[in-house]
Write a structure and sequence with these properties.
SAM-dependent_MTases_sf, seven-stranded mixed sheet, transferase, Rossmann fold, alpha/beta, EC 2.1.1.-, 9 helices, 235 residues, 40% helix, 21% strand, methyltransferase, Methyltransf_25, 7 strands
């Protein structure tokens, strides 16, 4: 797994959200949370697993909406940040954070209503094995995102500390098929890569975001998106 040691440092965990989701990064945070909520739907009473939950951005959000959720991550430092967030939100008794390996999920088959992973598959060395595990423990739904190969993401990918795995649509379809998953819904966004938005103030980012959204609103131009959200069903 790319960046496994990097994500486990206390310094990275403590600064993770401030560096990525302040300024123009707030637009990314809002969009990702909307994507999750639209995909998972009403969550009250649902059993949900989030793998690679990191600092608990989505874990806590879903717990606040009534989900019975487990957040799993390999980094104890990230999980500690998530626990702090859960306590601050008053939902610490509504969720569970666990340290574990996404390649060997410690749950029986068909254990959760939905299994999700955000900001994960770009780090995966063996995405097929991870997706198969997600499918195994889910009764109904698997949701995840990918960074796209033929997009602006590829332009600066070399400059990232551990790089990223980029996916074509064909690769994602093949992974879904191999894992016994059927594609139920897809969404594509952000012509400009995340790294660009994180480097500019929020007021400036909104202008670029408006242009970005307009481009992707033209039929056929969704192929320019740097990020895709995949909502799949267990077959």
């Amino acid at each position: 797994m790319k960046g496994q040691e990097w994500y486990q440092t206390a310094e990275v965990a403590e600064e993770y959200e401030e560096k990525r989701f302040s300024g123009g990064g707030r637009l990314i945070d809002r969009r990702e949370k909307r994507a999750v909520l639209e995909a998972i739907g009403p969550v009250d009473g649902k059993d949900v697993l989030e793998i690679a939950c990191g600092t608990g951005r989505f874990t806590v959000m879903l717990a606040e909406r009534g989900a019975d959720i487990v957040g799993l991550d390999i980094s104890a430092e990230m999980l500690q940040q998530g626990r702090k967030k859960a306590h601050a939100a008053g939902v610490a008794d509504h969720l569970e954070f666990m340290r574990g390996d996404a390649a060997r999920l410690p749950f029986p088959d068909d254990h959760f209503d939905a299994v999700m992973a955000m900001r994960f598959f770009h780090l995966a060395d063996t995405p097929a094995s991870f997706l198969a595990e997600m499918q195994r423990v889910s009764k109904d739904q698997v949701f995840f995102d990918t960074f796209n190969r033929f997009s602006t993401r590829s332009i600066y990918n070399w400059a990232l500390p551990m790089g990223s795995r980029l996916y074509s649509r064909g690769e994602v379809e093949s992974l879904l098929d191999s894992a016994g998953l059927g594609l139920a819904q897809e969404d594509h966004d952000f012509v400009l890569p995340y790294g660009f938005y994180r480097q500019i103030p929020g007021s400036v980012a909104r202008t670029f975001r408006s242009a970005d959204t307009s481009i992707l609103g033209v039929r056929g131009l969704e192929r320019l998106a740097s990020v895709s959200y995949w909502n799949a069903t267990v077959e």
